[in-house]
Design goal:
It contains eight helices and nine strands. It has 199 residues and is α/β, with parallel strands linked by helices. The chain has one domain: Dna Topoisomerase Vi A Subunit, Chain: A, domain 2 (3-Layer(aba) Sandwich). The mean pLDDT is 93.
Length: 199
């Protein structure tokens, strides 16, 4: 294309195809049929630009981080993940940049692993999970629910709830496991952003 028209921008191509991954405990994976050790140093992550050839063991839980700040600080939230998934290997994935979400979702559909979505505890966060993940993965996916979420929602952000209410007040909660969370959000008329779990 560049040789023919002299312009590398003549056709829009997503060159940066793939998604970011991170972990704080070593994960043995495969990339292009070859062993690939995942253990990024703190302050870094790995970009998987050939997701069609990326394999992990079936017992690894994939944790999707809705917000980039939480993804960049997984070690500051390890206390939460260790409490919820004791002894389990966790691979953290990031849904940003947003145009790469389809690459991540295609990979998730191809693998058998359990997926847990860690997002904001507000109506918009529930909607993101239901529309972007649950609609595709079904019950192989779930929404991360910390044991203290009701206490945090009770003291949460009322402005956040008010901003989102008109758009999401009649949202169909297709994953019935999330109905108690949605009921809590409406009861307290507040939301709670996941960054609050960063220590």
């Amino acid at each position: 294309m560049v040789r023919m028209v002299g312009d590398s921008k003549a056709k829009k191509v997503n060159t940066f195809r793939g998604f970011l991954v991170d972990c704080y405990v070593r994960i043995d994976a495969m990339l292009n049929g070859k062993p690939f050790i995942l253990h990024p140093m703190e302050g870094s992550s790995a970009f998987i630009n050939q997701p069609d050839h990326f394999e992990i063991q079936e017992d690894v839980i994939v944790v999707g981080m809705e917000n980039a700040e939480n993804f960049m600080q997984i070690r500051s939230q390890r206390w939460l993940f260790d409490a919820l998934f004791p002894g389990k290997q966790l691979l953290f994935v990031c849904r940003y940049p947003q145009e790469n979400l389809e690459n991540l979702r295609s990979w998730l559909l191809r693998i058998p692993n359990r997926y847990v979505h860690f997002g904001d505890f507000d109506l918009a966060g529930v909607h993101i999970y239901l529309s972007e993940i649950y609609a595709h993965l079904g019950n192989r996916s779930s929404f991360l629910l910390p044991s203290d979420i009701e206490e945090r929602l009770a003291e949460g952000n009322a402005a956040l709830y008010n901003q989102q209410y008109a758009r999401f007040k009649n949202m169909a909660v297709t994953d019935v496991r999330l109905q108690p969370l949605v009921n809590m959000i409406h009861h307290y008329r507040r939301g709670y952003e996941q960054e609050g779990y960063i220590r």
